Amino acid sequence: MNFSRLRFVAERALLGAGTEILFTVLIPERPGTFQQLISAVLPRPVTEFSYRYNDPEVAAIYISFAVSDREREKAEVTKAWDQMGFTWEDISGDEMAKSHGRYLVGGIGGGDEERLYRFEFPERPGALQKFLGELRPGWNISLFHYRNHGHGKSYLIGLTVDIGKILAGIQVPPADRPALEDFLQGLGYTWWDETENIVYKRFMTKNTGSK
């Protein structure tokens, strides 16, 4: 059995055993709502988080997290989302969502001010929250995908640990680019600038480039 097959089996086992719940959640499209969404889940481990800008009013999120008592913890988290005014749906049993939709979240793109970055860091409690919490309020996240990738060798410390990987689009005015560089350097995570990546340009922005 190859690694891709093992990954598929592991993900289905989590959902089938009721130890991971997959949701789609609609939240207001404004800075700070990602943190609200995540705050209702913590301290439970977030296992995936996918988003792409598409509507100026509403953000549609794919999110999954690990649980030990499915019904109790689902009720706790969704009650908090209800109080925040979020609209949610449990799609753990949706075959299309599990096999395809969670990997194909798309939208119209973040425009000329969007910069795309890829991050990798040793997985630890609060790592995702730290990333979201340290962004400037005026910087809008226009694309976000996070997945816990299990054991792997971290570029940051050179050891085999649980790895968290993020792909993020951040809309930043040109005048704020130096501040963005300072933010990236200060995070303490390994990162790569993917703004000129051909896959990004052809499939994740409105300008598909040359054929």
Give the tally of structural domains: 2
Helix content: 25-40%
List the helices and strands in order: HEHEEHEHEHEEHEH
Q: Spans of 5+ residues with little confidence (pLDDT < 50)? A: 1-13, 151-157
> What does the overall shape look like?
globular
Q: What Rg is obtained from the alpha carbons, in whole angstroms? A: 17 Å
Q: Can you characterise this structure?
A:
By secondary structure, the chain is of the alpha+beta class. It has 2 domains: 3-103, ACT domain (Alpha-Beta Plaits, 2-Layer Sandwich), CATH 3.30.70.260; 114-203, Alpha-Beta Plaits (2-Layer Sandwich), CATH 3.30.70. The chain is built from 7 helices and 8 strands; from the N terminus they run αβαββαβαβαββαβα. The chain has an 8-stranded antiparallel beta sheet with strand order 4-1-3-2-6-7-5-8. The chain is globular, with a radius of gyration of 17 Å. It starts with a helix and ends in an 8-residue tail after the last helix.
